[in-house]
Amino acid sequence: xxxxxxxIDIGKRHDPSAIVVAVAESRENxxxxxxxxxxxxxxxxxxxxxxxxxxxxxxxxAKQFRKGGGTKSPAIMVDVTGVGDAVVxxxxxxxxxxxxxxxxxxxxxxxxxxxxxxxxxxxxxFISRLQVLSEAKVIHLPGQLAEAKQLSQEMLDFDxxxxxxxxxxxxxxxxxxxxxxxxxxxxxxxxxxxxxxxxPLRVVGATKPPLRGPGR
Length: 216
Prior knowledge:
Helix content: 25-40%
Radius of gyration: 21 Å
Number of helices: 5
Strand order of the largest sheet: 6-7-5-4-1-2-3-8
Number of domains: 1
Mean pLDDT: 81
Structural class: alpha/beta
CATH topology: Nucleotidyltransferase, domain 5
Number of strands: 10
Strand content: 25-35%
Low-confidence stretches: 160-164, 166-179
Order of helices and strands: EEEHEHEEEHEHEEH
Shape: globular
């Protein structure tokens, strides 16, 4: 069974927003993520304009997914760590009939927890998961897209810097002039495993009951 996932990193003042569409599929109990679409939004767009573009992309992705036979409601994972819930409040009514919107907040640690729709994502968990998925080669990017090349470069620019005094780790595009918005959107789109395909139901060990005639 295929599942549609959409990861959205909402940009701040000097960082663009990014959106990644992923189709998750369990193959022999290993989830693979096909990335048919990814983009970075223009930096000078207002949040209302960004919401309109994000909603349009989500609607289009959901439509294509249903055309291909997909039935499960898409999961839309939105990073609200830096901007709060204001953008989610604008997105929610736009995506009401598209999929389930999940506000995601990054925190310290290596835990992933869920409270109803909301996810709290430990940065250590997020980074290690991306590394594992990348090394396992289960994220399949469309090589012909320029945005895919940008994402590949972002992944190379993604650093972990540890302060020698405090021991605190800083993650992301640390060097000047580099970005990590598409990496974040990709990680959100690939945050959860796909449900395994159980196949047709088979009853093992059942026997056909004997026929009983009248009076028996």
